């Protein structure tokens, strides 16, 4: 039997170094060889890769050349246009290679996800009213009705590029984050705002949603992060949940934007027993329905981070879904789950391998 290899696909080899190293340390017990590489490091003529292999004898990554691995765990985050242009076509080509099995195929952009989920009677009730922004006139129209709105880039994660807009009788204030720093921009006329928004929309595609009031009783923004993964039987399960709390005066709770993780238990202790039961019921509905629906509408997935908004009136909102979720909130609030997270990709590899061998038997019969 050929040795099984699991490749961590990253735009930058040192990205998530701690996470990929912890995973690789555990590969030996599954008899799985671990490699990591960038999409651009594949030689198109030989299909050999110049990357790094995890050496179990010294417990370190070493530079090496190797063939395309049997399994690929895609952890590519495209933050720059340059990396999208160079790396994304190669990743798409790899996904079509019948010799390679991706643990998960990722999700489309935010607009496409919301459009696909809108037709589902259960999940659509948790989705904020969302529209694709073609021109600044749509933003002005929304401000006339609600005096506020939220703009989100259709691609991107970690709160990057999200803009909150608030209108008063005298000014229109734009708020956004540069890392943990909150920035504001003030306009004194809709014409001025319109010109600025047209330039923005020319650079990037945005969706627009209501600016929901997602603050705790002390005025801090927060959201609930649900972390779901497939287990060794290929079944979805909730690995854990945590809460991300932003700083006072911010509108984002992402850790990248200065938020801090809290345990779900600590946060939910301020809820009444009735509120807690109702919230848990809503979360269970989302946990049971959403992953299967996403796979049905898109492609196979291995894990999902779901960001949930909980407003003061008790309404529950699905704010975002991420097929390449970070683990910081979960590991910091539930350190006992770290080992489970490090073993999960190997268990899932073996499940997929078993499925493939069963298919082979069926074909031969």
From TrEMBL:
SUPFAM superfamilies cross-referenced by the UniProt entry: Glutathione synthetase ATP-binding domain-like
Superkingdom classification of source: Bacteria
InterPro entries named among the record's database cross-references: YheC/D
Gene3D superfamilies per record: ATP-grasp fold, B domain
Pfam families, sorted: ATPgrasp_YheCD
UniProt name for this protein: YheC/YheD family protein
Source species: Metabacillus sediminilitoris
Taxonomic placement: Bacteria, Bacillati, Bacillota, Bacilli, Bacillales
């Amino acid at each position: 039997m050929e040795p099984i290899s699991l490749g961590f696909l990253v735009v930058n080899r040192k990205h998530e170094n701690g996470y990929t190293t912890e995973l690789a340390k555990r590969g030996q017990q599954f008899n799985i060889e671990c490699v990591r590489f960038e999409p651009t490091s594949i030689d198109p003529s030989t299909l050999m890769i110049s990357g790094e292999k995890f050496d179990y004898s010294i417990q370190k990554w070493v530079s090496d050349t190797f063939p395309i691995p049997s399994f690929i765990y895609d952890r590519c985050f495209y933050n720059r246009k340059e990396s999208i242009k160079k790396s994304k076509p190669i990743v798409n080509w790899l996904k079509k290679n019948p010799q390679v099995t991706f643990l998960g195929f990722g999700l489309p952009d935010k607009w496409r996800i919301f459009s696909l989920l809108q037709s589902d009677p259960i999940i659509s009730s948790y989705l904020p009213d969302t529209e694709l922004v073609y021109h600044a006139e749509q933003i002005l129209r929304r401000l006339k009705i609600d005096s506020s709105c939220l703009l989100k880039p259709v691609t991107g994660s970690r709160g990057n590029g999200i803009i909150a807009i608030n209108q008063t009788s005298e000014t229109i204030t734009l708020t956004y984050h540069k890392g943990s720093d909150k920035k504001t921009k003030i306009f004194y006329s809709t014409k001025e705002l319109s010109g600025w928004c047209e330039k923005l929309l020319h650079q990037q595609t945005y969706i627009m949603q209501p600016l929901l009031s997602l603050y705790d009783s002390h005025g801090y923004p927060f959201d609930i992060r649900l972390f779901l993964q497939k287990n060794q039987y290929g079944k979805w399960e909730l690995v854990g949940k945590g809460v991300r709390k932003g700083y006072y005066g911010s509108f984002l709770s992402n850790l990248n934007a200065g938020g801090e993780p809290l345990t779900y238990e600590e946060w939910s202790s301020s809820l009444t027993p009735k509120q807690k039961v109702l919230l848990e019921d809503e979360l269970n509905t989302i946990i049971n329905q959403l992953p299967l629906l996403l796979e049905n509408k898109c492609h196979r997935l291995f894990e999902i981070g779901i960001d949930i908004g909980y407003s003061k009136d008790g309404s529950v909102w699905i704010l975002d879904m991420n097929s390449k979720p970070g683990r910081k909130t979960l590991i910091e609030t539930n350190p006992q789950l770290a080992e489970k997270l490090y073993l999960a990709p190997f268990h899932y590899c073996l499940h997929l391998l078993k499925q493939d061998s069963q298919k082979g038997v069926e074909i031969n019969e």
